[in-house]
Amino acid sequence: MNKEFLKKVFFQSLTGFLSLALAILLLFGLLRLDQIRQNFRWVIDILTPFLYGGTMAYLLKTPCGFLEGKILAALPERHKKRAGLLAVTAVMLISALVLYLLLSMVIPEMVESIMALAVAVPPKVEELAQWVIAHLEGNEVLQNYVNNAFASMEQNLVSWATADLVPTVQGMMGGVVTTVGSVLTVVKNIVLGIIICVYLLASRRTFARHAKALVYAAFKPERADALLKEAAFIDDTFVGFFGGKILDSAIVGLICYVFCLIMTVAAGFQNAVLISVIIGVTNVIPYFGPFIGAAPAALLILISSPRNCLIFLVFIVILQQFDGNILGPKLLAGSVGLTGFWVLFAITLFQGLFGFIGILVGVPVFAVIYDLVRRWVVSGLKKHGKLDVLG
């Protein structure tokens, strides 16, 4: 009895000591939060090429596996060992070709649009001023107010050019070395990321075997099987979501392109390819993407025709409603196993918690949490003999 009492006291004391130690560590972390954040950022900066490479490899592993299966079926038996290398080479070349085609279509139109914008804006501003003054003829009070407003705007522009713009340009000229260094760092990280991506794709099965061996070495077979099954579900969820979102964005971009082509013939729309690419790419951001992409696209149209700009904005609202309430939930619900309601809930919740990153990964993360809760509920109902509650 005395022995049991001492054992109980020992475990209670140990629990209290560990709780106190954890609280002290937490308090120390909160007091040194800035330093910890700086150290974490330093580690992230070092591992940036691996983050780039890992992200690219994860996005390309599904098409790489698909191509490898096709190549294996086509190659004779003596050359099947080369199927993996050929698949990696093919998927990297296809990715580079797609990127090149997109840039070759977008960049010339972007440069042309910027030049047209620079030429068109000053006359449009002057035209607006003349229009306002003409419509206020006979109302001297408002005319004086508008004239003073435009004079103040002109004075502020001159003041900004002399007081802010020149020092800023001088500072930029002085910081050219730093800017070039930053650009070179980004280029270096991207090049290293591509090399790492190739290594990861070529050795993905080897890495998978090593990870599996580590799990079975660290846990009992039943627990290891459960962990690997959960990891496979998480992988399927993320691949399904991002695959569905890319398909959704491609469809939205194609719909926008067809609309722009029709409006090009009917109302003289310009920059159909550039506008469609902007809308399609920004649509990767769920629900809010079309509105984010609509701002620069509408500005391009506004310069040539305010009426066309209004038509385009109405179309974007309709497109967003179609994508947000019909197309997107249909594609994503089938990919992540969530209903349209939970897709909306996940995006709203994680956007509020984590901002832009939460918008991108909120749905697959919530799908994993939802599956864990679902299985926990089913297990509890089975234990209590109430499985019939689910219907």
Secondary structure: elements and pairs:
Layout: H1 2-31, H2 33-74, H3 83-135, H4 140-174, H5 176-202, H6 204-218, H7 221-267, H8 272-282, H9 289-304, H10 306-336, H11 340-354, H12 356-383
Question: What are the salient characteristics of this protein?
Answer:
391 residues; mainly alpha; 12 helices; 90% helix; extended
Would you kindly provide a written description of the structure presented here, covering whatever features stand out?
This protein is mainly alpha-helical. It contains 12 helices and no strands. The longest helix is centred in the N-terminal third of the chain and has 53 residues. The chain is extended, with a radius of gyration of 29 Å.
Rounded to an integer in angstroms, the radius of gyration calculated over CA atoms is 29 Å
Order of helices and strands: HHHHHHHHHHHH
Mean pLDDT: 77
Helicity range: over 70%
| Unreliable residue stretches | 175-179
In what range is the share of β-strand residues? under 5%
The number of helical elements comes to 12
Distance between the termini: 50 Å
What is the subunit arrangement here? Answer: single chain
Total beta-strand segments? 0
Q: What's the overall geometry?
A: extended
- Structural class of the secondary elements? mainly alpha
Biggest beta sheet summary = none
